[in-house]
Amino acid sequence: MKLHVFNPEHDIALAHNDKYFTAPRAGRILREDCGFLPALWAEEGDFVLVNDISKAEKGLLNIPETYRKRAQNIRFITLQNLRRLPADIAVEPWGWDSALCFQLSRNGFSDKVLPDEASLNEIRALSNRRFSSIVLRELRRRIDPYGDFTVGESQYVSNVDDLFSAIESDHHSVLKEPWSSSGRGVRYVGDVIDEPTTNWIKNIINSQGGIMVEPWYDKVCDFGMEFLSDNDGVHYRGLSLFDTENGFYIGNIIASETKKERAMSQYLSTDKLDLLRSTIESLLNPYLSKMYKGPLGVDMMIVRSKEECLRLHPMVEINLRRTMGHVAIELSKEHHESTATMRIVYENKQYHMIVEPSSIQL
Fold this sequence. Notes:
It is built from eleven helices and 15 strands.
């Protein structure tokens, strides 16, 4: 028996690193409107924490029955009733942060089921894009020692002068906050950085300690690989095919692994996909196996080089939390034949999760 928590403001909470953190209004609305999501992968007898049980039940009913079969035997519960649960019940959140731990602790949860301060600090450090940039260098060295088919570099800078030096050689660069998600906290800059962007840079360096500088790439498609870290190590779960627009997440493809691998074969051979997967497992295992238990994802992309060749960027970032790719993989278990698209949309001042037949043929 577990308690599941959808806390989509997790990445912002990591940036603030404050147990009293209050999410921005958009994050609070998303959490309230889509709090039912864990019901789609929870096991029989599990609980899902929501703000409003009737709203959660209504949101769940909007999901096609094919994809919510497993949700029939879960139970929604509100914060006010958490003390009715055993203090040592296992907790499975979207992602761990100090604000969530504080909220659960003051509602009766035992310290035995919550990460301690040292673990939270380690999770936060490994969620920083600076960590993924370090792993990226070693990943490229191992899978592509001669630079035949990969690209990707990222630099962490902690002052404005170093930032200007870092972008001097590129006409287009991408600046990213160390902690952010779903396209937020990302700016695209050219040779000249205007005053508002300079002020944003100074604010991020002041609040988060630094900022990431990356080259701009001519992106062909986004994709990712999803993993699970447990007592036995880091294990591959499946491919994540998703769409973005101007860097913002739009939706995931729900399909069998066979179909997704076939779709990716136009860019990467099965051998290269297998090498990429196994190398990421071996690289992340020493960092995660002893301190992090839960889902994670690695975002990647296929880009077009200046020579018009397709190249792999094997690690745009590491998401040390559950991702929508994990959700899509869970839903694909219920329906193998057809392909669907899973999206979260904001309409009429409310977020909705939509699962509909996909126009994309895999």
